[in-house]
Amino acid sequence: MAEDARVTTRVDEASPVEMRDPFVRKETKRASIWLGLACLIALAIVLVQPLLLIFAAIVFASLLDGGVRLLGRVLPIGRGWRLLIVVVCVAAFLIGTFYLTGVQVTEQATQLRSTLEQQATRFTSFLATQGLMPGASDVNGIVKEALGSVGRVTSWVGTAIGALTSLFMILVLGLFIAMDPGTYSRGLQWMVPIDLRDEFARTMAKMGDTMRRLLAGRLLGMAVEGIATGIALAIGGVPMAMLLGIIAGILAFIPNIGAIVTGVLMVAVGFSAGVDTGYWAIGTYLVVQTIDGYVIVPMVAKRTVDLPPALTLGAQILASALFGILGLALADPMTAMLKTALERRSDREDEKAAEDAKGDAAGAAGAT
What we know:
Elements: H1 2-8, H2 22-46, H3 48-72, H4 79-129, H5 136-153, H6 155-158, H7 160-179, H8 181-190, H9 197-235, H10 241-251, H11 257-272, H12 275-303, H13 309-323, H14 325-367
């Protein structure tokens, strides 16, 4: 009977597998955090291209928002109307530019392709005769292998249909964000703990201001470099001056690498028309890049975002290796956002340290 009583005695202590046990709750919470982080990292790797498209849409929305804010200084009308004016003006400028120069640019693009192929063939033949370059068949194999490795990373972005679809999604999503950015900002703040929302809101506001100033500086640099390059090449008689100016303006959005690509194109096209024209193209490139690097960029960086060239180039190399051409185009904004967030965190730590020092000084004064 005593043994039966011991068997049927109820145990009131918590079981180690029950969530009432503080140790189990603590370890389960810790394991859930690590498991959640691992899942987020895996999800980010899988969804890296859509995430880049979303970030590109945010960049486009910041560009539209900057135009809306600038227009608001002279037109005291609603935000929706100002956004409509900005969108109509941008669309009219693009359509008008392509309408007026479409035929000429198309012809020059075809001519540019054949010119670059001829110049590349001449250059590789010269290197092959000097023993500095493998044969043509070996070069083709190397090129195919390199393009194949790149294609595995960005295969769906590389197709024309995929590129147009991605561009359309970026424009539409960016337009929706620019219509009412406050709604999306409040949504992001809602996902942050309550005690961190004020600081998160201030950081987001600073990042948005940084993005707008960065894009404004980029647009100014693109306009100056494109127009100056086109006019200078046209004066020197370089073929396809208009197309090269447009390309130079577009590639100016990507610092460092864009300038290198522009220089290669200009020099190749210039020497295709003669030695003197090639020298003029080299001089034009050096003058434009010198003015851009030592006058325009410092002036713009002083009022926008000062990103060291080595930091920008390193970020572009990493982003292009990881995410392809889209990552290369967005490396600069991503670096600026990360730099702004780190600076804000450093400022917050300095403010906290100053408040603590002030409190300690007040306590010491009260004790005396």
